[in-house]
Amino acid sequence: QVQLVESGGGLVQPGGSLTLSCAVSGSGFSIGVMGWYRQAPGKQRELVASIPRDGRTNYADSVKGRFTISRDNAKNTVYLQMNSLKPEDTAVYYCNVGVRRLGTVWHWGQGTQVTVSS
After folding, report:
1. Can you tell me the distance from the alpha carbon of 116 to that of 118, in angstroms, rounded to the nearest whole number?
2. DSSP for 49-110?
3. What are 114's strand-pairing partners?
4. Which of 9, 13, 17, 22 gives 95 a disulfide partner, CB atoms 3.0 to 4.6 angstroms apart?
5. Interval 67-89: pLDDT, tens
6. Residue-wise over 24-62: b if at least 16 C-beta within 10 A, else e?
7. What is the DSSP letter of 42?
């Protein structure tokens, strides 16, 4: 059974930083693309950043230069370092992972709230 456990959300002032992490547990599979999405109240869920196994990164234009996605393949964990946070970054952040057995199944984390406010 695959489980994703997120941590690291919270309340931060504008200009501050937070780091999110998402650990994947289970056995009998490999992990492909790992990513972070977010959903603000009244808005659709959107891709924030993604990283395949080879480490190439992809970012939404709104977070380029401020957020950094990384992964530790040995620990099956993906991170999102968020700097220079803005109020518009306030959302529930979800990790999304492609788990490969016979094919690829996409799994979601439980979500973690990030609130940027003074």
Report:
1. 7
2. EEE-TT---EE-GGGTTTEEEEEETTTTEEEEEE-S--GGG-EEEEEEEEEESSSEEEEE--
3. 10, 91
4. 22
5. 999 999 999 999 999 999 999 99
6. beeeebebebbbbbbeeeeeeeeebbbbeeeeeeebeee
7. T
